[in-house]
Design goal:
The complex is a heterodimer of chains A (156) and B (705).
Chain A: E1 2-7, E2 10-15, H1 22-29, E3 48-51, E4 54-57, E5 70-72, H2 85-92, H3 102-115, H4 121-128, H5 138-155
Parallel strand pairs in A: 1-5
Antiparallel strand pairs in A: 1-2, 3-4, 3-5
Helix pairs in contact in A: 2-5, 3-4
Chain B: H1 8-12, E1 20-23, E2 27-32, H2 41-53, E3 60-64, H3 81-108, E4 115-118, E5 121-124, E6 127-132, H4 133-136, H5 170-173, E7 189-194, E8 202-206, H6 208-215, E9 220-224, E10 227-232, H7 235-248, E11 249-252, E12 272-278, E13 289-296, E14 308-314, E15 317-322, H8 327-338, E16 345-349, H9 361-374, E17 379-383, H10 386-392, E18 399-407, E19 413-422, E20 474-482, H11 497-515, H12 519-525, H13 530-542, E21 555-563, E22 570-579, E23 583-593, H14 600-619, E24 625-626, E25 629-630, E26 648-653, H15 669-684, H16 695-704
Parallel strand pairs in B: 2-3, 7-17, 15-16, 19-20, 23-26
Antiparallel strand pairs in B: 1-2, 4-5, 5-6, 7-10, 8-11, 9-10, 12-20, 13-18, 14-15, 14-17, 18-19, 21-22, 22-23, 24-25
The chains are: A alpha+beta (156), B alpha+beta (705).
Chain lengths: 156, 705
């Protein structure tokens, strides 16, 4: 079937079985490689994207369910040359080691800060607790989210 | 004059052009055999080159892990990259710098001593000369071998080394494609594996019709002996086929595993190769014997991404892109496994998720190569399934460590025996009993080789950090290398250092208690090494150790220290814990001495990562086995530390820039585990000797009080 939706503001029409995962469509049909496969079981958070602003595990989300919805991936925030304030905050804190978990965490951060521009440390931990980081960069990531929140508040 | 002693990497790769090239776009390409595994080594190597050459860092391009153009530096392991590869790059750059100045001086008709270099340009008396590296590059003979005789700069003159330069690879990783997983050449075929459950297992039936029905798409099944792969232009089809294949495959001769084999205690009665290292056995009976036995179970690398490789076989040449820890070894091992001439293979490193040791990366490369040889001309992107990564990557071996220590009448150790039971810590392909996994599935698998452990000269495996850093008259190690563990074991960050340091540093606290002394004061009374004393004193001060109190209140403070491999970086750690039914590590202080630190923030990131990973291992992690092998095949059955569980951290290096750089990637893991063990003992008044420190063990310990 043909499913129409937007990704990072661009209209897309994808002809795929409706049970195809959103992750598969993003990576293999639309070439958006910033959203990553980690477990396929909603256990690690590497595949997190936003659907209508809400964080969603794209590894299990069926494409049929995103018809007419707005999907945002890490490519929709900024680029390596022109990073979004959230990405810039992660760079400023050097909040990464291998970096595999980061795009998912950045997307959960976006959803959090859109909802709550001034989150407490506990709010941030709660928003990111579904994400795994194996390198142990957690404290830097928490600082990066606080920094991003401050930047975005300042810009608002 | 004696010839200078060159780092191994330069002995093996003496030609200068293996390391350095001046490119037409006015950059310098520095090649290293060490690869980025999330530790920031590529950035640090660039800093070293920038300083030694006097070329701006943004003019340095680091090529890492390329068998065509870069040096063979074996694997990226053992916290050696900065010492060995960094040391090599420094010598090469110093030599090329001297040669370049010589050429420029000839052109300018002056003496080399008249010239200096600023930003890659030659300067005479503060004035530009119009000459730079690139203008004289064609006249520098880089086909010569390095001599190691050119003087390197004094550390005091570094301007780039010692700076917290941001990681070069992070912007891409935060915004899009960045990993080998993310490369999709046109026409790529996706592949997934059905794995042989154990060595010697035979595939007796495979219902290919049922698998094709479940896969729902174009599917090629590559099947040879016990090797089975599913190949499709559609990744979801290949994945569905492999998942279904688990149900539609019948195996015989699968090695049965008993549940008891998952515990470290199982090791004790197994066939082993026994070694006695160090002092002879004491001739007189002990006067005042103290003992401790600790254990750690099998632990997973649990990389966040499953292993992946991209391979193409075309016109008789195999091109391999892999996130393995060494591309030259991978090339050799693939040549041997595939019976191809080594020249017919190129291996190039692309980034993967953090690796922490020997995981499935090399195995995935062979899997992909086997498919590529049968589907020539097309790029094959083979990725392991999540459950396959957990079930088939080599795991860190379980260990059992017993210390028997005889004490003098002041409670100080005089005679020390460390007894260790463990399977091998290194089965990297191409070394010892190591192999690439899929070779076991061949019709004619290579013979089983008796395992070995890394020699003491390389820091040992099970014996790593078994020799205490404290002053002891006589020390010996009894090492039982267990020959047939239930699962494949290999290198995991720190090898045996974590359980050995756990044993030593837990015992130190017990001996201090026996002597009625404070644990820090007790340690300092038997610790002569100045650099070790300094970090213990500093970390105690930062953690306000003197306010520690009596303990037993459910809150505890514990300290531990070690020098990794007794030759790399020193780390002293204090952990603060709260113990109710479970252990929560609230805060960790760490002071490390790593000599000259090339990139302080990058190195701190390594200390922090090692601490958090060690907290996770110590509190939560154990690979579970059932009759089929590894049973913990997802993140629910193999939980790791989460955002809500990570401690606050206070991490610092002492200023020791006058000393040569020491690797930091692994130095924190042992001290962190032991500091937690000691803090829990302080909190509970009773010691938990077996890791992980789970709720069940805490409850059992509380019953003892």
């Amino acid at each position: 079937m043909t499913i129409a939706f937007t990704v990072n503001g661009v209209a897309q029409r994808v002809d795929a079985p409706e049970t195809t995962t959103l992750l598969d469509v993003l990576r293999n049909r639309l070439g958006l490689m910033g959203t990553r496969y980690g477990c396929g079981l909603e256990q690690c958070g590497s595949c997190m994207v936003l659907v209508d602003g809400q964080p969603v595990h794209s590894c299990t989300r069926e494409i049929g369910t995103v018809a007419k919805r707005a999907v945002t991936t890490v490519e929709g925030l900024g680029t390596a040359d022109k990073p979004h304030p959230i990405q810039q905050a992660f760079l400023d804190e050097q909040a990464g080691q291998c970096g595999y978990c980061l795009s998912g965490i950045v997307m959960s951060t976006k959803a959090l800060l859109d909802r709550n521009p001034n989150p407490s440390r506990a709010d941030i931990v709660a928003a990111l607790d579904k994400h795994l980081c194996r390198c142990g960069t957690h404290q830097r990531i928490l600082r990066a989210v606080e920094r991003a929140a401050a930047t975005l508040r300042g810009a608002a | 004059m004696n010839a200078p002693v060159l780092p191994t990497s330069l002995v093996e790769n003496p030609r200068l052009d293996r390391w350095i090239a001046f490119l037409p776009d006015r950059t310098v390409r520095i090649a290293t055999g060490k690869v980025e595994i999330g530790q920031g080594v590529v950035t640090a190597i660039g800093q070293i080159a920038a300083d030694e050459l006097d070329v701006p860092l943004d003019r340095i391009v680091v090529l890492s892990g390329d068998t065509d153009a870069g040096p063979d530096e074996m694997y990226t392991t053992s916290s050696l990259s900065i010492e060995v590869s960094g040391g090599s790059v420094r010598l090469v750059c110093a030599e090329v710098r001297a040669k370049a100045i010589e050429r420029a001086a000839l052109r300018l008709n002056c003496s080399p001593g008249d010239l200096s270099i600023e930003g890659g340009r030659f300067v005479q008396n503060g004035a530009a000369t119009g000459q730079d590296y690139w203008s004289v590059a064609a006249e520098i003979d880089l086909s010569q071998d390095v001599t190691g005789t050119a003087p390197v700069k004094p550390a005091s003159s570094y301007t780039v080394v010692g700076q917290s330069v941001p990681r070069a690879d992070l912007p891409a990783k935060l915004s899009g494609a960045a990993f080998v997983h993310d490369v999709l050449p046109p026409d790529v075929l996706h592949a997934r594996m059905l794995r042989q459950p154990s060595r010697g297992a035979t595939l007796t039936a495979l219902d290919e019709t049922a698998i094709r029905r479940a896969a729902k798409g174009e599917l090629q099944i590559v099947r040879e002996a016990n090797f089975v792969a599913f190949v499709s232009p559609d990744e979801s089809v290949a994945q569905a086929a492999a998942v279904a294949a688990e149900r539609y495959a019948t195996w015989s001769n699968v090695r049965p595993i008993a549940p008891a084999e998952q515990e470290a205690t199982w090791l004790k009665d197994q066939p082993a190769e026994d070694r006695h290292i160090g002092a002879p056995r004491p001739t007189s009976p002990p006067k005042n014997l103290a003992r401790i036995t600790v254990s750690r179970p099998y632990v997973a690398h649990a990389s966040l991404a499953p292993s992946c490789a991209l391979v193409q076989y075309r016109d008789g040449h195999l091109t391999v892109r892999s996130h393995g820890q060494g591309m030259h070894p991978l090339r050799k091992n693939l040549a041997a496994a595939l019976n191809l001439p080594i020249e017919a293979i190129t291996a190039q490193h692309l980034h993967g998720a953090g690796c922490y040791g020997h995981n499935g990366a090399d195995d995935a490369a062979l899997d992909a190569a086997l498919v590529a040889l049968r589907v020539p001309g097309r790029w094959i992107r083979l990725q392991w399934r999540r459950e396959e990564e957990f079930a088939f990557e080599p795991v860190g071996p379980a260990m059992l460590v017993t210390l028997h220590v005889d004490l003098d009448d002041k409670g100080r150790p005089t005679d020390w025996t460390t007894e260790i039971w463990s399977a091998t810590h290194v089965q990297r392909p191409g070394s010892g009993s190591g192999y690439l996994l899929a070779t076991e599935a061949f019709a004619d698998p290579p013979p089983e080789v008796k395992p070995t452990d890394p020699p003491e000269a390389r820091g040992g495996g099970g014996t790593r950090n078994a020799v205490p850093i404290y002053d002891v008259q006589a020390h010996r190690i009894l090492h039982h290398l267990v020959l047939r563990p239930p699962v494949r074991t290999s290198a995991l960050r720190g090898l045996g250092a974590l359980p050995n340091v756990y044993a030593i540093e837990m015992l130190m606290d017990e001996l201090a208690a026996k002597a009625g002394e404070d644990p820090v004061a007790y340690r300092l009374s038997i610790l002569s090494e100045k650099r070790a004393r300094r970090i213990v004193e500093l970390v105690a001060e930062r953690a306000n150790w003197k306010a520690r109190g009596a303990g037993g209140s459910g809150r505890g403070l514990g300290l531990a220290m070690a020098r990794y491999k007794n030759r790399a970086a020193y780390a002293a750690v204090v952990a603060s814990v709260t113990v109710q039914e479970t252990v929560k590590v609230d805060r960790v202080w760490c002071v490390a001495d790593a000599g000259l630190v090339v990139n302080p923030d990058g190195a701190r990131n390594q200390l922090e990562g090692g601490i958090i990973q060690a907290v996770s291992w110590t509190l939560k992690e154990q690979v579970r086995l059932d009759a089929q092998g590894i049973a913990s095949r997802d993140w629910d059955s193999y939980p790791i530390l989460r955002f809500s569980e990570v401690p606050e951290m206070d991490v610092a290096f002492v200023d020791a820039a006058g000393n040569p750089p020491l690797g930091v990637g692994e130095c924190t893991v042992g001290p962190t585990a032991a500091a937690i063990g000691n803090a829990v003992a302080h909190a509970l008044g009773v010691r938990i000797h077996d890791m992980p420190l789970t709720r069940e063990r805490v409850m059992a310990a509380l019953l003892k009080t």
